[in-house]
């Protein structure tokens, strides 16, 4: 079964892009399943269900959603294999811009939108920098000059990625993305595979539930700023 990871900032249009691609691939006869990883809540499972796509939703709660993702993706892959899917798409939202769910050899797609600001590509980090495909959405509500500058900034961050403008509402531009997804590699297991980028090396008292402020409450991996 083929596996694709789709990640991007919240509200960048990930679900709309996945739906537009999936409806075309399903029409070609592919059986597609979705795993949605989010933090506290998600309504996207209803959109996938209305489209007739089997979906599992995982909420990270108090954990980083990308840490939650990597602890569950192997079991998700096995669910997809047992269900007889040809393609499994994992959708997750990067929130801290420091993590990335992308895995070596697994096709990695990052979705960013033209409305997020010209400096956003530099802020997103490994989620964009290590992706194979960068999808840019919401190009229909900015000028041609803004679209070109934003795409240039994306290419500066990740020169190796295929940069594809896609309209998540109409599906315009999704044909090239479909070709990339159809070329994704099949997997029977992810055991032994590696993430493309390490998760944050931070373990401090606040990671463990501390809420008080003060040096006596700070233990573990602490990084401070120079205000002199």
TrEMBL record:
GO biological process, one term: protein maturation
Domain CobW/HypB/UreG nucleotide-binding: 4-164
InterPro entries, A to Z: CobW/HypB/UreG_nucleotide-bd, Hyd_mat_HypB, P-loop_NTPase
Domain of life where this protein originates: Bacteria
UniProt-recorded Gene Ontology molecular function terms: GTPase activity; nickel cation binding; zinc ion binding
A Pfam family reported for this protein in Swiss-Prot or TrEMBL: cobW
UniProt protein name: CobW/HypB/UreG nucleotide-binding domain-containing protein
């Amino acid at each position: 079964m083929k596996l694709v990871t789709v990640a991007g900032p919240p509200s960048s249009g990930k679900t709309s892009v996945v739906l537009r691609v999936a409806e075309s691939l399903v029409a070609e006869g592919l059986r597609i399943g979705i795993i949605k990883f989010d933090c506290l809540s998600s309504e996207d499972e209803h959109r996938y269900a209305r489209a007739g796509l089997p979906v599992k939703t995982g909420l990270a709660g108090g954990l980083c959603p990308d840490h939650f993702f990597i602890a569950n993706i192997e079991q998700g892959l096995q669910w997809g294999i047992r269900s007889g899917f040809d393609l499994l798409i994992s959708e997750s939202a990067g929130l801290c811009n420091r993590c990335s769910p992308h895995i070596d050899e697994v096709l990695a797609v990052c979705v960013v939108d033209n409305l997020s600001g010209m400096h956003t590509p530099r802020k997103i980090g490994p989620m964009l920098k290590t992706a194979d495909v960068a999808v840019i959405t919401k190009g229909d509500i900015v000028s041609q000059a803004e679209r070109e500058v934003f795409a240039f900034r994306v290419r500066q961050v990740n020169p190796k990625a295929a940069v594809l403008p896609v309209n998540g509402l109409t599906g315009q531009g999704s044909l090239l993305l479909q070709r990339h997804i159809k070329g994704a590699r099949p997997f029977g297991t992810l055991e032994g595979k590696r993430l493309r980028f390490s998760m944050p090396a931070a373990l401090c008292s606040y990671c463990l539930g501390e809420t008080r402020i003060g040096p006596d409450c700070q233990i573990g991996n602490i990084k401070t700023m120079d205000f002199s």
